Amino acid sequence: MSAPLRAWAGRRLLLGAAQVAAVPVLVFTLTEALPGDAAVALAGDDPGPARIAAIREALRLDRPAVERFADWLGDLAHGELGRSLAGGRPVAGLLADGLGPTVLLAALTLVLLVPIAVGLGMLAARREGGPLDRAISTLTLAVHAVPEFALGVLLTAVFALRLDWLPPTAVGGLGRQPAVLALPVLVLLARPVCSIARLVRAGLIEAMAAPYAVHALRCGVAPARVRWTHALPNALAPAAQQLARTADWLLGGVVVVEALFVIPGLGTVLLDAVATRDVPVVQALALLFGVVTVLLNLAADLVARRLAPRTEVAV
Amino acid sequence: MRAREAGGAGGTRRYLLGAALIAGPLLLALFGPLLAGEAGPRAVSFTPGGGHWLGTDFTGRDVWRQILLGGRPVVLVAVAATALGYAVALPLALAAALTGRAWLEEVLLRPVDVLIAVPTLLLVLLAATALSPGPVGLAVLVAVAAVPDIARVVHAAAVEAAARPVVEALRLHGESWSRIAFGQVARSIRRTLAADAGTRLVGALHLVATAAFLGLGVQPDAADWAVMVDRNRPGLLLQPWAVVVPALLIAGLATGTNLLLDAALHGGGRKGTRR
Known about the structure:
The complex is a heterodimer. Chain A is mostly helical. Chain A has helices at residues 3-31, 38-43, 49-59, 65-77, 91-126, 131-144, 148-162, 182-209, 211-218, 223-261, 266-275, 279-307. Chain B has helices at residues 2-6, 9-35, 63-98, 102-115, 120-130, 135-162, 165-172, 177-188, 190-213, 225-231, 241-274. The longest helix of chain B is centred in the first third of the chain and has 36 residues, at 63-98. In chain B, helix 3 (63-98) packs parallel to helix 6 (135-162), helix 3 (63-98) crosses helix 8 (177-188) and helix 3 (63-98) packs parallel to helix 11 (241-274).
C-alpha cells in the first residue's frame, strides 16, 4: 500500500466509524428524544392513562434523555436489547426468529446479482448501439425505476394467478418448497441488476476504447483476453461502488418483499413494530440495519479502490 | 463518448416511449380529481362489473373513481419533496463550495457524509414510529432523506465552477454572496442541477409510493394508487383490476420519468457539445 492510499484508507475508516456512531444517535433521537411527550406520542391510537404510564415505565421516560441514551448504549454493549412493549418477549428472540428468512433472501439475491448484472452488462457492451444493446439498455433503464411493490404485484398477477406457475405467497414456509423464493428474489434483483448492468456496460465500452486497450489489440493480444483481464476490472470499479448502494435498496426491498409475499423475516418484524410503536424492537432493528449498511458501504469503497486505485472515491 | 451512447434514433425512440408511458398516469394525476365527481353509494366489496367500469375495491367503492383521485397525492408529494430537498441542499452546498474557509466547509458537509450511509426507507420508518406523519410530513421526510445526495452532487459541481476566474472577478467587484452563488455559480452548473433533480424526482416517486404502500404517511383508506395496491391485494383473485391498474399506473409513471430523463440528458448533451 502506497502512502496516499494508506492515508485515504485511514480517512475512509474514520468516516466509517463516524457513520457507525451516528446510527444509534439517530435511532435514539428519532424514536425517544423528540420534542413533546414521547409516551403520549407512542401511545398513538390508544392514549389511555394506563397505557401512557406503562410506556413511561417501560422506557423509563421520567429520566433525562442523555441518561437514558447512555443506559441504552451500556445495555447494547452487554448484548442486552430489552423487551418488546407488545407482549414482553425479549427483543433478541424476535430478531433471531426473523433473521433466517431475511438472510436467506439477501444472500440469494447477492449471489445471483453479480453474475447476472455483469453478464448483462458485458452482453450489451459487445456491440455498442446494436439491437441487443438497445434492448438491454432500454429495459434496464425502464425496470430500474419501478417500485418493488408494483413490480411484485404485477409479477404475482401474471405468474402466480394468471399462469399458475409459481406460488403467490410464501405462506407455508420458505424451506419446504424452493419455488416460493422465485418471485421474491426476482423482485429483489430487478433494481440492482439494472443499475449495475448499466454501469458495467458503460465502463466496459469506455475501457475497451481506452488507449491501453486499443494498443493491446493492435499488438495482437487476443480480444477476449483484453476484455476479460484488462478492461473488465476497470469497468467493475464503479459497479462495486454501486453494489454498496445496493445495501440501501436491499433493505427497502426486503421490507417490501416480505410484506408482499408474507415472509416472516426481519422486515416484517420491523413493520409490525413500527405499526404498534414498539420502540425497543424498532430501535434494535434500525440499529442492526443501519450498521450493516454502513459497513457494506465501507467494504465496497475499499474494494472499489483496490480494483482501480486511481479512481477518486469521495471521502 | 456520451453523445455516441445516445445513438440518434435510439434517443428519439426512448423519448417517444417515455412520453407514451408517462402521459396516461400524469394526465390522470393532474386532471383525474376534476373528473371524479360525487362518490356513489357503496356496493359489495371486490365485485367486477355491476355498473362499475373497473369493479369495486375492498370497501365497495368504485375503483375507477379511486384511480381518478389517487394519482395526485403520489405526484404532489414526490414533487414537493424534491423541491424541498433542493431548497435545503442547494444553499448548503453552495455555501460550502464558495466559502474560503476549510473548517466551515467541513462543518457544513461532514454531517452530510455521515448521514449519506443511512438507508432512506429506514429513516422514514423510524420517524413514523413516534410521529404520525401526514402527506406534508411524508414530503418533509423524503426531502430530508434526499438532502445528503443532493448536497454532495451540487457541492462537487459548484467547487469546480467557483474556482473559475469570473467568480474571482465578481468577488473583487464586490458583488453580493447571493448574486455570485445563485446568479453565477448555480447558473453555470444548471445542466448538472437539472440532471440531478430528475434523478431525485425518480427516487422520490419510488420512496413516496413505497412508504404509502407500507401504510406510512397515509390514511388506511386513502385514495392513493400505492395504498390501493396494498389494500386491494386480498381481492387479487376476485377482482384483479383494483390492484393491477394502480400498480401499472405507478410503474408507468416511474418508468416514463426515468426514460424521459435519460433521453433529455443525452439529447441535451449532444446539443451542448455541438454548440
